[in-house]
Specification:
The structure holds 2 protein chains of 2 kinds. By secondary structure, chain A is mainly α. Chain A has 20 helices and 4 strands. Chain B has one domain. Chain B is built from 1 helix and no strands. Chain B is rod-shaped and about 45 Å long. Classes of the chains: A mainly alpha, B mainly alpha.
Chain lengths: 592, 42
């Protein structure tokens, strides 16, 4: 105790001695910042006008397109290497072939990513030269590192893809996977660097807040408050997105193929891709929640603009899209139950899961405040509906989304179980424990939701964390118990390819809804800066420095989504074209 | 559903209830939100 006191005394004395130094240093820094060149403050005349072109729409479209393509080409190698590793560990060559095919689709999209990225950079320098000049001042040499990483990404990607057959067995396979690991490391670093630029514009760091002068290092600007939340959110979202796009490819091939063996392959690929998409998707709301919480922590004004202000209605559209994704993914899983003989036994539970998912979806899309005419307000007796109004606030929505995630996982678990017949003694006990886990976990999620209505706001927000942990406990707990239950289980034959054509359209819904959703959320994230290029540092004085109407934003995002989907169909078609061989007319088939 | 399974459910209900209750309390307190035995704000 005495020792601790003396330590505290020494620390205090040192602090007291250093205080004048610290004050002087702060003064020096302020003086130094005053001498540094401030952030440019462009006037309207400083923004070049090229014909009748809308600078914002051009930059918006190209940035979004680049992001879609980049998300796809960065995500696929991540799960390609995981699939390749799975093939190596299990000795099942089908995994290896599928990983190779995943990469084939990426290759076709890679050059388009670079082309659109280059066009975006040109458009930004053309339309926003002052902003780009300032960002270059802030990030300096990092831009060159980015360019070097891009080169390295291209080299490792080409080597990884083209050496697949040359490095296929034994130790060479490990060399190949190491190249894949290198590719993914470079890819993720690229994304993290680009994320730093985007988040710096939202939550600047390493600059003087009065003048915008660059006072800190590149690293200080990079690790700005929103950098890591966005890194995590984009990492998970990219995996979900990549899985959804590849699932769309598998569905396309499933519908196009006539050969039952190939159909079975693409059905398996579709199932795996859907699994990857959902795996990335399940923790995504929690990462999004963290990002939003950090936005609020950084600037309450920014948080309110997003969730309670002009952009709040877009979150209702977000809910519709996420609900669509959930319904499509679940429908695909339920359709998959017909692949096994035991699957039918689980069919009776589907309707109950459907009720929860649809109910959750409806709660999620219920708005808190309605846009009403005076007559409607009079009829309702206020701006909120008596029964539906309470469903518009976060405790109800958190409860709904957690239940939707739990029941989506249940759909997965049913399919997993349908192909395995338990034989060990723990099976019944394990099943009892899992039933109890679901019951108590769901009660806890609903209870925490109700708790939000009867406690002050801080408790309401705080209660969302136990809800998330409950969902994760159910998922992790059920997986662990099931692994013990199904140890030594008799595998049931899975009839890959025994799927309806209708189910494949659910796999098409996923990439379309994901693309739309990313476009929408990306727009919201970017719009949070309102009329600032760099929030509170550099004002946007361009003629388009306003938040567009919901309709205008919706139309722009829809057009971008449609163009991207057209590009994807082209990429799928190219991949199929690459495997199509014309018959040699000089070789005549002899009959008999 | 056999006796063993019903017993497992009952024991599971008690165990999971204890786990979720402890988790709720711990997380609320860890966030600086003190709660009583009934999980209501103190």
């Amino acid at each position: 105790m005495r020792h601790q006191r003396s330590l505290a005394f020494v620390a205090l004395a040192a602090g007291a001695m250093l205080l004048p130094e610290i004050v002087r240093a702060a003064g020096d820094m302020a003086e130094a910042a005053a001498n540094l060149p401030p952030a440019p403050q462009p006037s309207r005349a400083d923004y070049p006008q090229i014909g009748g072109l809308s600078a914002r729409t051009v930059a918006w479209g190209l940035a979004q397109m680049h992001l879609f393509l980049a998300a796809f080409v960065l995500a696929v190698p991540l799960f390609a290497i995981a699939t390749e590793f799975m093939g190596q560990v299990t000795g099942d060559r089908r995994f290896d072939d599928m990983a190779h095919e995943f990469m084939k689709i990426t290759m076709a999209a890679y050059s388009l990513t670079a082309l659109v990225g280059g066009s975006l950079a040109l458009a930004l320098f053309l339309f926003y030269p002052q902003l780009m000049g300032y960002l270059l001042q802030v990030f300096r040499g990092q831009v060159l590192i980015y360019a070097a990483l891009f080169l390295l990404e291209s080299v490792t990607l080409y080597i990884y893809y083209y050496s697949w057959d040359a490095l296929r067995y034994g130790n060479r396979k490990w060399v190949h996977m190491s190249i894949g690991l290198g590719l993914n490391t470079v890819g993720l670093t690229l994304m993290f660097v680009a994320n730093a630029w985007a988040t710096f514009m939202m939550s600047p760091a390493g600059v003087d807040f009065t003048t915008g002068a660059v006072t800190g290092s590149v690293w200080e600007a990079t690790r700005n408050p929103l950098w890591n939340p966005l890194n995590l959110h984009r990492f998970l979202a990219n995996i979900a997105y990549g899985g959804a796009i590849v699932g769309g490819y598998a569905a396309y091939m499933f519908l196009a193929e006539k050969d039952p063996v190939k159909k079975a392959h693409y059905d398996w690929m579709g199932y795996t891709s859907n699994f990857i998409a959902i795996l990335g998707f399940l923790p995504l709301p929690f990462a999004g929640y963290w990002l939003m919480a950090e936005i609020y922590a950084y600037s309450q004004q920014m948080g309110i603009t997003a969730m309670g202000g002009i952009l709040a209605w877009l979150f209702i559209i977000q809910a519709v899209l996420i609900g669509t994704i959930m319904l499509a993914a679940n429908y695909y899983l339920w359709s998959g139950l017909m692949r096994t003989e035991r699957g039918a036994a689980y069919g009776k539970y589907v309707k109950y899961i459907m009720v929860v998912i649809l109910g959750g979806f409806l709660v999620w899309v219920t708005p808190h405040s309605l846009i009403l005419t005076p007559q409607e307000i009079q009829y309702l007796g206020g701006t909120q509906h008596k029964l539906l109004g309470p469903l518009g606030i976060m405790p109800a929505k958190n409860t709904a989304v957690n239940l939707m995630l739990v029941f989506t996982f249940l759909s997965f678990q049913m399919f997993y179980r349908s192909s395995r017949k338990p034989t060990n003694k723990f099976a019944d006990i394990g099943n009892g424990l899992i039933i109890a886990l679901y019951v108590i976990g769901i009660i806890n999620i609903v209870g925490a939701g109700i708790y939000g209505y009867i406690t002050p706001t801080v408790y309401k927000v705080g209660a969302s964390v136990p809800q998330v942990i409950s969902t994760l406990t159910i998922i992790v707990g059920a997986v662990i118990i099931d692994l013990f239950r199904l140890r030594g289980a008799e595998p049931e034959k899975v009839h890959w390819g025994r799927m309806t054509e209708r189910s494949q359209y659910a796999l098409f819904v996923l990439p379309v809804a994901f693309t739309w959703l990313m476009g929408l959320m990306g727009y919201i994230r970017s719009s949070l800066r309102t009329n600032w290029h760099v929030y509170t540092i550099m004002k946007d004085n361009s003629p388009e420095a306003y938040i567009p109407t919901i309709g205008q934003a919706g139309n722009t995002i829809t057009v971008i989504t449609l163009v991207f989907m057209a590009i994807m169909v082209f990429v799928f078609w190219l991949s199929r074209l690459g495997t199509t061989r014309q018959k040699d007319p000089s070789v005549r088939e002899t009959i008999g | 559903m056999n006796t063993k399974q019903i017993l497992a459910i009952l024991i599971g209900l008690a165990l999971w209830a204890a786990y979720f209750y402890a988790m709720d309390r711990y997380i609320m307190n860890a966030q600086g939100l003190p709660v009583g035995y009934d999980l209501m704000p103190l």
